[in-house]
Amino acid sequence: MALLSIKNLKAKINETEILHGINLEINPGETHAIMGPNGSGKSTLASVLAGKPGYEVTDGEVLFNGKNLLEMPPEVRAREGMFLAFQYPVEIPGVSNTNLIKSAVNEIRKYRNLEPLDAFDFISMIKEKAAMVEIEQSFLNRSVNLSISSNEVFQMAMLDPVLAVLDETDSGLDIDALRIVANGVNKLRRNDNAFLVITHYQRLLNYIVPDYVHVLYKGRIVKSGGKELALELEEKGYDWIKD
Amino acid sequence: MEENNNILDNIAESEYKYGFVSNIEQELAPKGLNEDVIRFISAKKNEPSFLLEWRLRAFRHWQKMKEPNWAKVKYPPIDYQDIHYYAAPKNFNKYKSLDEVDPEILRTYEKLGIPLEEQKRLAGVAVDAVLDSVSVATTFKEKLNELGIIFCPISEAVHTHPELVEKYLGSVVPYTDNYFAALNSAVFSDGSFVYVPKGVRCPMELSTYFRINASSTGQFERTLIIADEGSYVSYLEGCTAPMRDENQLHAAVVELIAHKNAEIKYSTVQNWYPGDKEGKGGIYNFVTKRGLCEGENSKISWTQVETGSAITWKYPSCVLKGDNSVGEFYSVALTNNFQQADTGTKMIHLGKNTKSRIVSKGISAGRSDNSYRGLVKISKKADGARNFSQCDSLLLGDKCGAHTFPYIEVANKTAIVEHEATTSKISEDIIFYLNQRGISTEDAVALIVHGYAKEVLNNLPMEFAVEAKKLLSVSLEGSVG
Ligand SMILES: Nc1ncnc2c1ncn2[C@@H]1O[C@H](COP(=O)(O)OP(=O)(O)OP(=O)(O)O)[C@@H](O)[C@H]1O
Ligand SMILES: [Mg+2]
What we know:
The complex is a heterodimer. By secondary structure, chain A is an alpha/beta fold. Chain A is 35% helix and 26% strand. In chain B, β2 (192-196), α10 and β3 (222-227) form a beta-alpha-beta unit. Residues 1-25, 128-134 and 208-217 of chain B have low confidence and may be disordered.
C-alpha cells in the first residue's frame, strides 16, 4: 500500500485556485523531490498536506497510511507521522526546545498508546538522536533557535516521522545548513519511512539523492522521472517543460 | 407585589428603629449600612470595645469618602445600601452526594485534579465527620502550638490575643487608606490571623490547614500576619477550584508586618466566579493588600495568580521601611471573556539599600481588559535603593486589551530603577507550528502560557504551582482556534 496517495488534489487560498489537480504516490522507503519555478505551488502543496489554516481543498483525495488525511486536524496528521520542516524559526518565549520536543514526543506516544517518557528516558533519547543526526545537544536548552536547520532536523529525528516534508526556501540553504539537513535525512532514511523534498535547485539533490523527481508547474505535476531529471532541469532550466 | 415589598421594607425599618441590635439572635442584618448595623456586627461577635470604636471611626470616615474611579475598570454603580453586611455563617452543605452537583462544575474540578473528598467539600456536599483531614488538622494545630505560632480566625484572635490585634490591626492599611479599606474596616466579617514568634521558622505552608477548614469566608475578609524578629512564614490564600459566592462585592484587606530579619511569603490563587461568557454576573474583587517591612533585613514577597472575578482591583504592596529590606511582587493575571483586571503593586522605598523586584505577567483573551498599574517610589532617605520591574503582556486574539501604567517617583539620586515591558501575541503561526508537532491547540496554548508565566509560577510552593498551571490552561480553554 502506498504511504501517501494524492489524487486530483485541488486547493485554493483567498479564493484563488493554486493547485489544479495533483496526483502523487509515495511508497515506504522512497524519497521524492518536487522541483519547480517560483510560485508554482510547491509550498502550497506542503501546507495543504500539513493542514495549515487558510487553505481550502476544493476537490480530490489524500490517503495517508490508508486514512483520509484531509479530515484530520493538523495535530492528528502529525501524530499519524506527518512531519513538516519549517523554514523560519518560530520563537516561543519561555519555552525551551527540550520542553517543546518533550510535549511533542509524548503526544505522539500517547496517540500510539505508549506511556509518556520519564525524564531519564527522555534524556537518553535526546543523546541518542542528537548523535544519530550529528547535532550538538548544547543548543537545546535555549528557547531561541541557533540554527533553524539543526533544530528542525533534530526534531525530525526525535519524532521519527513516517513521512517528512522538507521545503527549501527559494533562496536555498547555505552550505552548512545543506549538509546538516542532507545528513539528517540520509541518517533517518529507512525502508518504512519516506521523504518529500521540495527544492528549487538541483544542488540539494546532490546530497539527498531522490528516487523520483517531479516538476510542479502552475499547480500541476507536469513531468516525473528519476534523479537524472533534476540534472536535466539544472542544465536546461524550466522553459522546455512549459508547454 | 410592589406594595408587599414596601410593607416588608417598613417592617425591616421599624425593626431596626426599635433596636434590633439587642436582638443578636437574628441571623441577618437588614440591608444597608449605618452605625447600628456596625454595632450589631460587633455585638454578634462579642467584640471588645476598642474594636467597635475602631469600626465606627472607619465607618464615619468612609461616609466622607468617594468611591475611586481611576482604575481602568467599568461597572454599574454599586448601591451600598442594598447589601446585607452581616449574615450568620450558613450551613454550606447543600447536597447529599456529588451526583446532585452540576456536572459542569465537577468536570472543572476533574480538570484541575482536585481530590474527591475536597471536591465534595467545595461543592457543598455533606462529608462524614470522621475524615482524615480532621486528624491532619489536629496534628497540624498541635505542631503550631508547640512552636508558639498563633494561627486562627481573626474573630478568635480578637478574644485570645486582643493586645496583638489592637496593636497591629490597621497599622499597615489604616481605614483612611482608601474607600474599600474603610468599608472593610467598618464591617469586616472574618479572616485569618497569624503570629510567628521571634526566631521561629514556620515548618509548614499555612494552607493545608486553612483549606481543610475553609468556611465561607465571606465578602469582607480581613487578614493580619505578623512575623516577629527573625521568623519566617509562608501563607497560601485561596484555591484553584472555582469559587462562587452570592455576594457580588468583595472588599478584603490583608496586612503583613515583618520585623527585623523576618520573612513573609504570601501566595494567592484567586479564582472567584468571573461571570458567564456574555459577561453577566461575577465577583467584583476590590482588595487592599499591603506589607510593611518594619525591621532591618526583613523581606516580604507577594505571589499571585489571578484568574477569577469579573473585576479585579488589587495592588499588593510593600513599604520598605527597614534598612536592607526587600519587597517582591510576582503576578500572573489572566482575563478572558469580559473580565477586567487592574492590578499591580506599589513598592515604597523608605529605608537605605532597600530592594524591590516586580514581575508582572498579564494574559488577556476574549474581550477582556488587563491593566498593570505599579508605583515605585524612592524616598529622599532611601540611599542605594534598587528596583527592577518586568511587566509583560500576552494577548490571545485581537479583541482583548493590555495596558501598562508604570509610575516612578525617585527622590534620591543614588537609587537605581529599571523598568522593562514587552507585549506579545500568540499568533496563528505559533499554534500551527505546535499543532504540526502533534500538540493540540489547547495544549499549545497551555505550553505557551506556562512558559510565559514560569518565573511567577516557580515562586509558588510546589504543589500550588502544579494546580495553578492547570488553572491557567483551564481558564483559557476555547479561547484560541
Ligand atoms: N496568501 C496567499 N494569498 C494569495 N495567493 C497566494 C498566497 N500565498 C501564495 N499565493 C500564491 O500561490 C502561488 C503558489 O505559491 P507557493 O508559495 O506555493 O509557490 P512555490 O512553488 O512554493 O514558490 P517558491 O519557489 O517561490 O517557494 C503563487 O502564485 C503565490 O503568489
Ligand atoms: Mg515555496
